[in-house]
Amino acid sequence: MTSIEKVITIFDDYRPRLMGVAYRILGSVVDAEDAVQETFIKWNKAIHIEIENPKAWLTKVCTRCALDLIRANQRSRVEYVGAWLPEPIQCEQSSNDIDNIELSSSLTTAFLLMLERLKPNERAAYLLREIFDLPYEEVADTLNVNQVHCRKLVSRARQNIDKSNKRHIAPIAQQQELLNAFRTAVENRDASQLKSFLTADIQLQADGGGKAPAIIKPVIGLEKVIRFITKKLALYWSGQKLESTIINNTLGLKIINEGQVTASVSFELTERGALENIFIIRNPDKLQRLGTVLLH
């Protein structure tokens, strides 16, 4: 193997991890790919003999690239039309094994939205330390801060995350029962099963990004959400295929019309099994790459 082939092989081995870090920081597959590509460019230009730990070096560079993208995209995020939701990813299978709970729960739509409410450095510090299990020394070096400040970043993020209670994935049987009830409400205009899942303050959000018809403000409240599903969604999706799939590590739906994905749907269930949020993506830019993404 030539030195160039070795350099590429090392990078390819770590690519899923880098995508995992970047996607969780950015909530966007395309932006994560940009961060990983920029990391690859820097990796190619680096003096590899001086890099003792390629994994740490690549993670640091990719994280910094992702944080740079957050700053560069700040204006477009402020000007975004309607609700912004993370770009959905389609997973091969749902994973809520106890051994993988940290990684699996950190991919859900609800958790990614919660991360968006943190400051970028807090978000990165928490992910690197709590999800990817990096030592504080490496996290501090990545963020170019001292370890005391790094620990404060992680602590503040942890407090907000603990309060939000977003680190939960419902049992797969419970998810399937909800999905069946939701499909019945849409396809048969019958919400009798679904109603038992809904919290009183249930929210339904839709992300069209100004590029596809979608509600601008969330629909809030049990009766309003039921009415929206059985009246509006039942009409909008009439004749379209509702295909079950794994969206961000939980059971969800792809809405398909003439072979094209027109929407994705994911859900947030509380620890008691109540449906708290429904997330619908209509923005075509966020649906183009809806497929299996190789990430850690």
Please describe what this structure looks like.
With 296 residues, the chain is of the alpha+beta class. Helices cover 52% and strands 16% of the residues. It contains 13 helices and 7 strands. The protein has helices at residues 3-26, 29-45, 54-72, 74-78, 101-105, 109-116, 120-131, 136-143, 147-164, 172-187, 192-195, 222-236, 284-287; strands at 90-91, 198-207, 219-220, 241-247, 250-257, 260-269, 275-281. Strands 1-4-5-6-7-2-3 form a 7-stranded mixed sheet. A hairpin with a 5-residue loop joins strand 6 (260-269) and strand 7 (275-281). Helix 3 packs across helix 8 (136-143), helix 7 packs across helix 9 (147-164) and helix 10 packs across helix 12. It is globular and about 65 Å long. It starts with a helix and ends in a 9-residue tail after the last helix. The model has no long low-confidence stretch (mean pLDDT 91).
If you compute it from the alpha carbons, what radius of gyration comes out, rounded to the nearest whole angstrom? 20 Å
Query: How many angstroms separate the termini?
Result: 26 Å
Helix content: 40-55%
Structural class: alpha+beta
Query: On the 0-100 scale, what is the average pLDDT?
Result: 91
Strand residues, percent: 15-25%
Tell me the series of helices and strands, N- to C-terminal: HHHHEHHHHHHHEEHEEEEH
